[in-house]
Design a protein that fits this description.
Layout: E1 8-12, H1 16-27, E2 31-35, H2 39-47, H3 49-52, E3 58-60, H4 66-70, E4 75-78, H5 87-94, E5 98-101, H6 102-108, E6 114-118, H7 123-136, E7 141-145, H8 151-156, E8 163-167, H9 170-173, E9 183-186, H10 201-209, E10 220-224, H11 228-235, E11 240-245, E12 253-257, E13 260-265, E14 268-274, H12 283-296, H13 303-312, E15 321-326, E16 329-333, H14 340-348, E17 354-358, E18 377-382, H15 387-394, E19 400-402, H16 406-416, E20 422-425, H17 438-450
Parallel strand pairs: 1-2, 1-4, 2-3, 4-5, 6-8, 6-9, 7-8, 9-10, 10-11, 11-12, 16-20, 17-18, 17-20, 18-19
Antiparallel strand pairs: 12-13, 13-14, 15-16
Helix pairs in contact: 7-12, 7-13, 16-17
Length: 452
Amino acid sequence: MGLLDTKSFFVLGLGKSGMAVARLLAGKGYEIVASDDDADVVRSARDARDLTELGDRIEPVTMDLAPAALDKCGCLVVSPGVPLEHPLVRRARQTGITVTGELEIAFRFCSSPIIGVTGTNGKSTVVSLLGEVFTAAGRRVVVAGNIGTPLSAVVETGGSCDVVVLEVSSFQLDTISKFKARVAVLLNVTVDHLDRYEESFEKYASSKARILDNADDETVFVFNDEDAVCRRIAKGYQGAKIPFSSSRELDVGVYAREGTIVRSWKGTTEPVLAIEDFSPIGIHNLENAMASVAAATPFEVDVASIKLALENYRPLSHRMEPVKIVDGVTYINDSKATNVDATVKSLRSIDGVVVLILGGLDKSGDFGLLREHLDHVKRVILIGDAKEKIRKALTGSCRILDAGDLEEAVREAARIAKAGDTVLLAPACASFDMFENYAQRGEVFRAAVNAL
């Protein structure tokens, strides 16, 4: 029986994607049972106008009633934030109920070509860049996925566009079966989310590689030629490939030459943009720009449109975002740096002396990898649950201070920093020990800086 041949679905997790896929399926005439580990969320869903307007086709149930309700359904749809070791997921697999995800369901109803962007860092920046590129080219584009708008919410409204640009997480890829992208983009694969992948980097990397699971003759693979895992995955892929590199010229692909981003494709080599005209700072943002050039290439977007979009692009909030200069000290909000590799790239992007704010909820990161990048760091200020683990990893490589919260960390940084220095929030950790998400953490940092 095909995925959509069942009459009833159980949706587990009632965040944005869960609510969206419940609405989509109910609107297609399916019977939906929905639940969440948080009973308050279930109660809210019962009263939510966007669900209740669909009548009795969606039934929110609390977790105590969920097992019996699941047994009557033909498919379990798991939201990305729900671990695949969840008791209901195990129950479904043991009883032969199909387990899938919101992305897979939405893909079955999507009639537009997809650019799927995955990787450890840079996904949101690249998909937003691509949105600007296609808009500049006069194409109808929708930016969706893990960046904020679930694909289910896009396809629910019907109609088609020239291209859908999707931010795709490893958690979403874990539950695909037929999902495929016209252009599959792999930005980088570095240590992250090992708390979810049983401390196995190879399992995490394998999840990222699933972006190619259903590739066909039309699929173009865009990958970072600077990243060892990306190169390894690309080596095993026999279809069309467009690599990008920030350090060396390529026969085919996107690269830097004499201060300019250059594209070589189908026998034509042409300059795209002077690197100095792209405002986001750092080598990682240069790679993000190159990835967007490469991903737009199979859609035959002209260089003039790409150049215009890159010149006018401004960084997303909480991603190497300059907040303010106070007494000659520059404060930068990189709250989105939620893993060690992202923090390393942030540090490499800053010339001059840095006061670094680190810490939060550990995702089984190897903080010792930061040691060789601290030569220009005057002081590390620690916050959050991972404080002691970071201290143990960095002791002897830099001077370390504790702060009770982020506001105190900002005040301490202001006391230490001198004119010309940079105070950098790049936590190398998740935010959930102290904040709702990385965005709230960034807002608190911004408010603390503005209060100096």
